[in-house]
Amino acid sequence: MPPKSGSSNPLTSLVKKLGTSPNAFNAKLAADNLARGIAKQGLASLVDGGVLKALSSYATSNKPGERMAAAVGYTSLVTVLGPAVLPALLPTLPTLIDMYGDGDNTVANSARKAVEAITSLVPVEAIPQLAILLINELKAIGKWQAKIGCLKELARLVDLKGQEGKDELAAILASLLPDVEHAMHDTKKEARFPFVSAEAVATATSLCSTLPNPDLLPHVSILIESMKAPTSVPQTIKSLSNTTFVTEVTPPSLAVLIPLLQRGLNDRSMEVQRRTVIIVENVCKLVRDPVVAAQYLKPLVEGVEKIRTGASFPEVRAFAQSAYDTLMKAGAGTEIKVAPRDLDTESKAVEVLLLPLLPSGLVIPSPNDPAAPGTPFHPLFAKTLDFSTRLVAELVYRNAFTGDDHPKWAKNSPDAAQDGSEDVLVDTIFSLAYGALLLLSHTRLRLVRGRRAIRDGKVENFPPQDEVRAVMVEHALQGEDRSLSIIDFIAADKQLESVSRVTIRDQLLAVGFDDDRQAQTVGSLSGGWKMKLELARAMLYKADVLLLDEPTNHLDVTSVKWLEDWLLAQKNVTCLIVSHDSGFLDNVTTDIIHYESKKLVYYPGPLRAFVEKVPSAKSYYTLAATSIRFSFPPPGSLVGVRSNTRAILKIKDCTYTYPGGEKPSLIGVSCALSLSSRVGIVGPNGAGKSTLIKVLTGEAIPQEGTVYKHPSLRVGYVAQHATHHIEQHLEKTPVGYIQWRYQAGHDKEMLEKVTRVLTAEDKELLEKDWVGRTGEKRKIEMIIGRQKLKKSYQYEIKWRGLDHKFNTWIPRDELLERGYTKLVQQFDDLESSREGAGSRETTLSAVRKHLEEVGLDGDIAQYNEMSGLSGGQKMKVVIAAALWNNPQVVVLDEVTNFLDREAVGGVAVAIREWAGAVCIISHNMEFVNALCPEIWNVENGRLVQQGKSAVVEDAFLEAKSKPASRLASRRASPAITPSGSNAGTPAGSGDEGTPEGASTPAKGAGPPKKKKLTRNQLKAKEERRRQRKLQWLISGGPKPDSDSDPDPV
What phi and psi values does residue 702 have, to the nearest 5 degrees? Predict the structure, then answer.
């Protein structure tokens, strides 16, 4: 409708009334009347009636009332006229944003409302155009209030139009983030300017939340922090190097990563440079579009080239060379000439196409050429048409006008064998990288219902949980409440709220939990029963895809057979199984998915059919057929032990009950280990196997019975759950962990055992006076030294409050008789650890070499934090740490659970060739039977020994028969316990006399030949001579004879 002409146009008076409104309320009334009047006359009256011109004049007026009137007027136009007025009002945004800094708060608040009203009208396709307008205004304006206003509006755009709006913003992140980052570092010295920096951080965080890459979203906060504070770049790079990447890297992700990687490449630290070039290489491998690689990765080439040729560390140069080659292969060095865009020309071309399609009343034909497109009938319509044609031109440029032109990845590969009878659950292509390693490269995953061969939704193109329900069965029950009863534990699962307790009870009964066991707490369960509990919970989820990671770990033979039967009975569940149990895989698998050259290769049939096709996989059946070689350090000698069949670690009549438990886990158990022991501990789940080991190694204190350990014995203990050892050090690298643990020359973890921590009673004993033979009273402060004394030891005591010159040597037996057992054992552990680890240098190269000898990659050992290691890698770290101080006994509790078949073979070969004693708990009977001629069968807390047992003799008892050879100090293999051990004293009998059958000197045979003193005996003799002389100097009296010391017997 054309506007009314002449000076009587009512819009003129309404505009004037708006400009003279005394307050915001009156201005709102006048503005609403004006907007309704425009609605009656038509949008053209905005121009014809001079409304836009008047409002623009008010907005730049010196009078606060008129500036407020302009902002209120714009808000009313939006409210009444709707989206049609957007093209006319969009150019007013810079003026309104500048009003944010107005000294009159009413004007500033009115301007904010106007801007929010106008931006709310923007269609999703115009969000990039609006965002660029705001960014340009952010760079141009100087008022801090206006800067904050621009940043707030940018952040508001993120949630303005839902996911479509986020996708539009993500596409232009490369254009937005640099200027937002610049706002974080604004250098103007004004009291309120920190608000700009804080708002810029908040805006950058909101913008980065639009990233389509789920692998980067958890790191948004540290990525933003690295923009704000360059000093945090090393920590950000470190965090990214421990990240698992599975999603294709697209331009939005590169827009965030490239600036960070450039800073990392320019960092002076060799460690940061090394991590950065590795991340660069893996990012390149996940960029599938060569045009994107050439456009975004090119800025990295110079930094990588600089490190490749100039880094001081050869290994860093090698990593940089590999990254450089990958960059070049990806196309980063390709010159792509992009023709400069002329948006005006593109817009005009679209207008030429649109004008003939418009109604004739909206277009004025060309007077000179009837065939020409014509022109818009009104200036305001021309502005609206220009806005629309620019949007269309942008959509055409991005090929975004249809959703089917560029499918991301085909759901079904053309070479895929399709069988109409198969119910395909998943058929997708994805990549998988972990920080410094690309594990899978653009490989295919195809799962068919009912086969046995994602839980977090991170696999690219994997169907969501509401379409394909995938359930992961884990071991550790991490983060769960272990104080709950078993049935309450499952009932508390939010995903099982609709499942009745009767159903839960029946399912628990099906996996072996009777009513009594269901009432127990989760924390009281052994590793095998925890695995059963997780399986029971997974079954209640009614999964389409069941993901089982080493499901037979911790399960006894009976439980494994039950699991096999259950899996075979599932006809509508696809089971994806990771396992190194060859017998289990042979019985349950229908297909094998094998990892080969960063691809998943599919082999139909069970494991044995796969091995027939791939002979290199024969290690699944033969422990010796392994390409991995482990090397254990030779065990150190044990002072006073000249027979490798003499007991050095024993327990007698021990009973142990866990705190809160009603039934003892061990009942009257007696056993012993010698230097030649090769013991396998077997038994059902929950029988007490791990408890027995904990009592033997000092991890637990029995309520009844005694535990004896040779004072100089070193035990390398690998617990059932590897994280038991390293859970407090996950931020360290494997090399750093061993260096921390042994940096003082002894094992720090040794002193943390509950059997070595001083109790209140022990501390009270230290407060009691020690009454000497002369009646003098002193208090023991600590033990600071130890030396051989005949067949035992004597300890140097530091007395409280006295100088070191008053230290005294006291025999071991006397200290034990007076109750200082814990103090003596604590020092014995410290000294034995020093004897083993003190001679080893904890240099980086030495520790790295040691870790490589147990199968851990040197670069992973040196650079990767343990929090990012796999279960098998953590197990190798724990094994290496346990072996660092050259132990004489190694105790392995379910060590095969976390190692692959190759690594299990490597451990088996290393144990077979090792000269120390070994004690193994495992349900892998193949592993146990190959190494252990002696079996300890634990069931219901009681121990039954099968095979050869150790001779229990005192650790310092000299054999009166022919001296035994020192096998313990040689790197020989005592794989079979010597037959002579069968005649020994039964373990734990307490008979420490001469063994039955041992020879004694004949009567009348004359005095024995005088023995030559050993080096240690000579040292002890010299120390005694020195002590006698020192006592003579202090006390006087006759001078002692230097040769009066008798030789030890």
Answer: -70, 150
